[in-house]
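Re: duplicated header lines in exported structure tokens

Our pipeline writes sequence and tokens for each protein into one text file. With two proteins the header for the second block appears twice in some exports. Here is an export where it did not happen, for reference. First protein block:
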Amino acid sequence: MAIAYSRVLLKLSGEALMGDAGYGIHRPTLDGIAAQVREVVEMGCQVAVVIGGGNIFRGMSAAADSMDRATADYVGMMATVMNALLLQDALRRAGVNARVQSALHIEQVAEPYIRGKAIRYLEEGRVVIFAAGTGNPFFTTDTAAALRGMEMGVDIVLKATKVDGIYTADPKKDPTARRYDKVSFDEAISRQLEVMDATAFTLCRDQKLPIKVFSIFKPDGLRRVILGEDEGTLVHA
């Protein structure tokens, strides 16, 4: 079965790991994501992952309101390390060899980010999970996904969400909302479509790195994306 993308960067939000819970990790949801990743790895796709930490702590949140912004962002980065280790464990239980590389040096639990080593892991069929964002405050994990995607030479950035694409309006509020199959970067800007944060979006646009927005909660969503089927919304140059 031919795949449309041979190397991808999967951007997972921390909130995606919560499932229907309001905080933390929902184990069945985590295991379901691991199973989807295993399926596409077995199809021959090389998968890198950037993971957020919003299920535990977010720098731009009410909980961080009185904190110094840089300190709050570092706390958020450490939350992403926790999520990365949990995802690595879920993948290993699913039979997938995974490595965590962190932009913050926490060598007792994760390797430091080394570009050449990460590429070699991907070529060997391992999943590489990038934790701690860019390692710098004031940048989101969306920006980290764009940067790591470019550094890894991926074919596409896959933005995993709770909604199966980009719509003309909120589909939960407007039953007439229509899903875009494809949209250009310029159209996304002019229509003020919230795809990724502005820095990440600009990086992808300038490097002509396409973005696919899809639902990670559809059991076969990731597989359909990798096969190039009509799933989610493609943002392209």
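Second protein block, exported in the same file:
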Amino acid sequence: MFLSALIPFIFLSKFGRETVGFKKTKRIGTIATAFIFGIVFSLFLYYLGIELFKSSFQNWYKYIGTSYNIPEVITANDKLLLFSIMASTGMIFSPIGEELFFRGIVQGSFAKSIGDKKASIIDSSAFAITHIAHFGLVFINGSWNFYIIPAILWVTSMFLVSILFFKMKKLSGSLLGAIFCHAGFNLGMIYSIFYLL
């Protein structure tokens, strides 16, 4: 993610960065709205996963949560500390790196030739496919599994949340809208994994 965040500074001029949305917003209120929308979407995915797959490994948040290595027995203070560390890093690194790359470089590059809407479909498709790395082909109890229906739902959800990030970029007039929406989504997901599952 750190390298993704550096790409605009290596390959784009100041004008290029501003063109893809790396600039201040004049609509500060939209930043809070974007953050809240991100949280709401992540909580919707939590409830959808629970409704369809309960606490099985076919539930995307349950599987993703295994990578957090939350001890089975943990004090409330230690759990809060671990949550705070995971939430802080999850709200900073991937939102900045991924949004600069996907909603900035990818979307901005395609938008010049095919327009914003078609470009957002391309960057959202790329974003969704890369998130198969989080859930899709899963490694459980020493063997690989592919849960086709849960994976399709996860990838579709990542496509839709990516469209939401794009909408928040447009609403705010800046990548900050997408970054804060993404940060809100990650906060909601990490909260769901730590406290709702």
